[in-house]
Structure formats: C-alpha cells, structure tokens
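hey
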C-alpha cells in the first residue's frame, strides 16, 4: 500500500513504526540519488540518508513539519548532511539547488516526449554491464550481492560499475538535476510507455 505524505506524517507523529517504513519506501531512493549528486559516492550517500532518517525518527521532529512540506524537509535535511560531510572532508561544495520534490514530480508527469527520450537515452547509453548494475541497484532496489550473483561478478565489481555509471549519468543529465533526483520514477514511466522495464518498482504519488 502506498501512503500519502499526510498519512506518513500522521503515523510518524503517532510514533508508529510503519510510518518510518512508508517514509523509506517513498523517499529513500530519491534522497540517495540526491545525496550522490553531492557526494559522488553511492555507498556514502546511502549511509548518509539512512543516518539522517534515523536521526529524524529518534529526534521526533515530525510534529514540526507542516502538511505538504515533508519532501522539502527531507531534502533539506539530506542536503545539510551532505554539506557537513563535504566540509569535514575539506572537499568542494557542489552548487545544487534544493529540488522541490512535489513540484518536480508534477512537472515530470507533464514532460514532453523530448524529455522522456533524454531520460531513456541517458540510461540506455551506459555500457551494458554498467547499465545492468545501475538499474539493478537504483531501480530494482537489489542489494550489491544480488546484482553480483545475477551478473556473475564480484561485489567490488558491482560497486565500481555503480560508481562509474552514476558518474556518467550525472554528466549526461547535467543541468537537469531535478530529473536526476526523480530519475528512477522517470525511467519507469518512460519504460512503461515503451513496453519495457515493466517489472521495476516504480514510484507512485
């Protein structure tokens, strides 16, 4: 079952653990892609997003979030976490505006065929094995081990291909960062229109 942001906030305010599960299901992957755009390291992005969400849960701050602002709140928290991480590592900060998740997704629903084509080509243009790794981890939500077993390679190879694939996607989608954050949903949508990628877990509103 897919819950709305209001449903998720209500459950979180009531201290229901299923609210956290619903939050992860709806926002985890977009937040990881967003963090990776800053950190350029998928594993670090996963760790940072998990850490931020756990902090939010333990801090019981959800009562302060107004209805309709959950996405903006989460992306802001992750962006701040990324900035702190980069400052500690003394790495340059990426100039990236905070995506307005709900607005960007509404725009994505109305995107024209040219935009859909760019999304399809960005992913399809990756080397085959790299594409299979990126799709497995980012779209199908498979673990590194599961992808490694599917392709008959080592987990380290999967991690390397994922890093290279995400780097190439960032370069291909440069200037369209909001699309990249919504990439998993967009690819599912574009693929469904072409009769492919039907098995992926697509994001729903």
């Amino acid at each position: 079952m897919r819950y709305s942001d209001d449903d998720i906030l209500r459950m979180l305010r009531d201290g229901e653990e299923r609210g956290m599960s619903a939050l992860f299901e709806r926002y985890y992957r977009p937040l990881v892609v967003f963090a990776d755009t800053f950190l350029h390291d998928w594993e670090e992005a996963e760790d940072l997003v998990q850490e931020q969400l756990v902090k939010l849960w333990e801090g019981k701050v959800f009562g302060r979030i107004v209805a309709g602002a959950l996405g903006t709140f989460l992306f802001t928290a992750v962006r701040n976490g990324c900035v702190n991480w980069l400052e500690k590592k003394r790495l340059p900060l990426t100039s990236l505006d905070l995506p307005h998740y709900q607005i960007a997704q509404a725009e994505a629903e109305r995107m024209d065929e040219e935009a859909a084509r760019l999304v399809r080509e960005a992913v399809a243009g990756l080397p085959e094995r790299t594409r299979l790794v990126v799709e497995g981890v980012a779209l199908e939500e498979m673990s590194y081990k599961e992808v490694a077993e599917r392709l008959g390679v080592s987990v380290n190879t999967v991690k390397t291909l994922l890093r290279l694939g995400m780097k190439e996607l960032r370069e291909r989608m440069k200037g369209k960062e909001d699309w990249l954050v919504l990439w998993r949903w967009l690819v599912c949508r574009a693929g469904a229109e072409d009769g492919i990628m039907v098995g992926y877990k697509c994001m729903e509103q």
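Residues 100-110, 187-205 have pLDDT under 50 and may be disordered. The chain is about 70% helix and 0% strand.
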